[in-house]
From TrEMBL:
The protein's name: DUF481 domain-containing protein
Pfam families cross-referenced by the UniProt entry: DUF481
Alphabetical keyword list: Signal
Signal peptide per UniProt: 1-22
InterPro entries, A to Z: DUF481 (IPR007433)
Taxonomic superkingdom: Bacteria
């Protein structure tokens, strides 16, 4: 009886020790300066209504998002694209079909002066935009200075998921040290290198073999299959930590209204914090002032997001978007949008979503039903079912 109690106590002690140790592993344990990630999505939402109205009304929105970042100790390069198309028709007899689109692409390059000493950098940024009824595309160039660093910790998130899955199935025994987690994450981060060296058809066997070696050669055939399933078939959202601020000067070379050669000032900041292994908080803000005698313009955007992984294939995404625009020749315009989405990943590439949203626009123009048709005095509510295809 005494030996049984001793054995049980030892087992419980090992379990508690394992849990305590596991809780100490987080995204912040990943400090590799060189990494890369790529996110690309194609999202579609459609709303159709009929009955008790003159004609069937519909609203279709197709949006595309692309974000690719290359990071090293002395340089960060980011390619970003956001675009959407809206096709709609109102419920009234005379309502016509409307089509609108907008798109903005940017390339930002941060060059660190002395990465081993501090995180000061200079940056260059190029932007190109297009929208419905424009006279010219939007083009802008900016150069400036900044401080701070954002680390892509997604490889560590994947390493934690792999180790947990293996331990849950008894395919990996004993504690895993922080150093081992770091080595596994480093191998995971080199997936593009393996793909380039061995080809897309064969790279996974070499990649998983090296992951197994970092785990002390404990990866069995079942363990390799499960690791492949986690890394390839499961959706693990991008994880980042750190902050940076930047300020620059530039010029709007061409603008949507046909004007050109306007000097611009830009101030931006971003902050990312993985609250735990399932929750990511991010905030990105940018303020741009366009200087033109008698027609100065001011634009500010702030995007705050909180993503929580309810399960391996279910994410709860919450976003608050604040936009503010002001100019000498028009009323100030401020829009607040809140969006909450439950996203179910059918596969690594396809997800179904349910989204509820609130939006409020302040433009200092009241709807009176006669002299204007501006109807944004109240809070807009939306509810959508969506389908998202993950390109990358």
């Amino acid at each position: 009886m005494k030996s049984t109690i001793t054995a049980v106590s030892a087992a419980v002690g090992m379990l508690l020790s394992s849990v305590t140790f596991a809780e100490q592993i987080s995204m912040f344990d990943y400090d590799e300066a060189t990494s890369a990630y790529e996110d690309a999505y194609l999202d579609a939402q459609f709303d159709l209504r009929d009955g008790n109205q003159d004609q069937a009304s519909y609203n279709a929105v197709v949006s595309a998002n692309y974000d690719r970042v290359f990071s090293s100790a002395d340089r960060n390069t980011r390619i970003d694209f956001v675009g959407d198309t809206n096709i709609s028709q109102g419920p009234n007899k005379n309502d016509e079909r409307k089509e609108n689109y907008q798109a903005l692409a940017s390339l930002t390059n941060d060059m660190y002066f002395s990465p081993k000493v501090n995180d000061f950098f200079w940056y260059g940024k190029a932007e190109v935009g297009a929208q419905t009824d424009m006279e010219d595309p939007f083009t802008k160039l900016t150069v400036g200075l900044g401080y701070g660093r954002v680390v892509n910790a997604t490889p560590m998130a994947k390493a934690i998921r792999v180790v947990q899955s293996l331990q849950e199935r008894g395919l990996l025994r004993g504690n895993v040290s922080r150093e081992t987690y770091q080595k596994v994450a480093q191998v995971i981060a080199k997936e593009p290198v393996y793909r380039s060296r061995y080809g897309s058809a064969d790279y996974a066997e070499y990649w998983l073999e090296d992951i197994g070696k970092t785990l002390g050669g404990q990866l069995s055939a079942r363990g390799a299959i499960k690791s492949y399933d986690v890394l390839i078939n499961e959706r693990i959202s991008t994880r980042k930590y750190g902050w940076l601020v930047r300020a620059g000067v530039g010029a709007v070379l061409t603008n949507y209204d046909g004007s050109d050669s306007k000097p611009a000032l830009e101030v931006g900041a971003e902050y990312h914090y993985p609250i735990n292994n399932q929750t990511q908080f991010s905030n990105e803000a940018i303020l741009t002032a366009v200087l033109d005698d008698g027609d100065n313009g001011f634009n500010a955007n702030n995007t705050m997001s909180l993503t929580y992984e309810l399960r391996d294939n279910i994410d709860w995404e919450n976003v608050w978007l604040l936009t503010y625009a002001a100019s000498d020749k028009s009323e100030d315009l401020m829009t607040n949008s809140l969006r909450s989405t439950f996203r179910y990943y059918v596969s690594n590439s396809i997800s179904l979503s349910v989204t509820g949203g609130l939006s409020k626009t302040e433009d200092n123009i009241d709807y009176d039903g006669t002299t204007n048709t501006n109807r944004n005095d109240d809070v807009d509510t939306t509810f959508h079912f969506g389908l998202t295809y993950r390109l990358k």
